[in-house]
């Protein structure tokens, strides 16, 4: 009997999890339906539709006229409210954001008019259901944000109280990781579709995600709820795009080079004499079965080439302390993403996505070390996610997430001077249910 009791308690605890805070991959709409005198209307029908939602989502008001529409994908919604004996009303441009609740109240006038009253207004976006201090970037904003790195990590630099510079990294180099509340690289947690992707060894963002596969980013800087955990500074919560009932996509090619970029003088490391960065990408999505099954796919390739001239490092007296010979750092990265979203029925949804990255770098250390100390690195990353959502009632929902991240990184000498001096094979790190394998020559 004991196993049965444990199972019942687990199911009960899961079913009691409600609201937008519990559903970190979605948002919700709630409000009151009232008559002209301000009394709540019980039994009114509330239906939400959106290009982000497969089919439609409906509910009815309770005895006080209150309604809740939980587990809504982020996006812009139209809410239609109707009741026998009253004129129907349609609320447009209701924006649902990740991890937030939006209030949409409706006042119905008595009468059986055939026309529906359309109301467009600014609905309050102040979060009243959570104490989290958050900043959200939706899909429209992501298209216009000046993110040269095309990474969700890069968005943090637009949030007050967050720094994202080289000194926040453990090596003092690189694009810089967000430092939230002064905790640096090791104080952050990164979530994609509700599950952590943080590298357990070096606390970075883990397997990258094609920027065009991101639907919304939520950056939580203070007062976050216990379920986010595993972070002393803050949390960056990301959800991925789904398809839609219409086919669509985009293709682009981005180029950066020393002829299009301002001069940069780094006093600690050698500066490249020539620099080139190319970033072609393509994405496409649509319906497999309209109002039932959607797909979305994205591919991103990034290649950069830094050429370093011989550089003299001076000491405090102005004398040459070290000479860094010329060298080239070559980086190639291919990232693939695919996602399926299936509406089993109006109250049950199943989605799954898969991400793969293959990256190769040669000439690591060309800006900081001699030829003998330079290395190459090959990385193969895979990540999958499955998310099941079920709505029992307006106040009882179930969300089950499962996922896996597998990263293999091989570092080898980037020269043929001697054989490898040491080899470590199968160095495993198992932290917070994450597994990491390193092979080093």
TrEMBL record:
Where, per UniProt, does this protein localize?
Answer: Cell outer membrane
Q: Where is the signal peptide?
A: 1-23
* Membrane topology per record: Multi-pass membrane protein
Entry similarity comment: Belongs to the TonB-dependent receptor family.
**Annotated Gene Ontology cellular component terms:** cell outer membrane
Q: Organism source for this protein?
A: Candidatus Polarisedimenticola svalbardensis
**What's the protein called, per UniProt?**
TonB-dependent receptor
What InterPro entries does the database record attribute to this sequence?
A: CarboxyPept-like_regulatory (IPR008969), Plug_dom (IPR012910), Plug_dom_sf (IPR037066), TonB-dep_rcpt-like (IPR039426)
Q: Which one GO biological process term can you cite for this protein? A: siderophore transmembrane transport
């Amino acid at each position: 009997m004991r196993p049965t009791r444990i199972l019942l308690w687990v199911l009960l605890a899961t079913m009691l999890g409600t609201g937008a805070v519990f559903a970190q991959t979605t948002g919700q709409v709630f409000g009151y339906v009232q008559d002209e005198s301000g009394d709540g209307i019980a039994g009114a029908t509330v239906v939400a539709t959106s290009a982000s939602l497969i089919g439609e989502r409906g509910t009815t008001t309770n005895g006080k006229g209150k309604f809740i529409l939980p587990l809504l994908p982020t996006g812009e919604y139209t809410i239609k409210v109707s009741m026998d004996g009253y004129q129907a009303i349609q609320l447009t441009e209701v924006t649902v954001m990740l991890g937030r609740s939006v209030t949409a109240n409706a006042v119905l006038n008595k009468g059986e008019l055939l026309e529906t009253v359309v109301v467009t207004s600014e609905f309050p976006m102040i979060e009243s259901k959570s104490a989290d201090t958050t900043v959200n970037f939706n899909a429209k904003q992501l298209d216009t944000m000046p993110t040269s790195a095309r990474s969700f990590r890069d968005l943090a630099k637009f949030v007050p109280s967050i720094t994202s510079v080289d000194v926040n990294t453990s090596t003092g180099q690189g694009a810089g990781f967000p430092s939230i509340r002064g905790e640096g690289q090791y104080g952050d947690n990164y979530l994609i579709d509700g599950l952590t992707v943080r590298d357990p060894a070096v606390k970075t963002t883990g397997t990258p995600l094609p920027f065009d596969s991101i639907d919304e980013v939520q950056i939580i800087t203070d007062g976050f709820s216990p379920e986010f955990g595993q972070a002393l500074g803050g949390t960056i919560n990301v959800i991925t795009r789904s398809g839609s009932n219409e086919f669509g996509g985009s293709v682009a090619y981005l180029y950066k080079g020393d002829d299009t970029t301002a001069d940069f003088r780094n006093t600690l490391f050698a500066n490249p004499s020539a620099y080139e960065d190319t970033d072609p990408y393509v994405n496409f999505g649509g319906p497999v079965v309209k109002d039932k099954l959607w797909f979305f796919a994205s591919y991103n390739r990034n290649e950069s080439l830094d050429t370093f001239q011989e550089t003299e490092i001076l000491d405090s007296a102005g004398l040459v302390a070290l000479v860094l010979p010329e060298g080239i750092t070559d980086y190639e990265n291919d990232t693939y993403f695919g996602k399926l979203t299936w509406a089993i029925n109006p109250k049950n949804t199943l989605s799954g996505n898969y991400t793969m990255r293959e990256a190769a770098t040669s000439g690591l250390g060309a800006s900081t070390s001699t030829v003998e100390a330079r290395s190459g690195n090959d990385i193969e990353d895979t990540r999958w996610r499955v998310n099941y959502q079920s709505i029992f009632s307006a106040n009882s929902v179930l969300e089950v997430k499962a996922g896996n991240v597998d990263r293999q990184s091989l570092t080898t000498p980037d020269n043929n001077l001697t054989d490898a001096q040491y080899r470590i094979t199968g160095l495993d790190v198992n932290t917070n249910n994450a597994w990491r394998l390193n092979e080093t020559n």
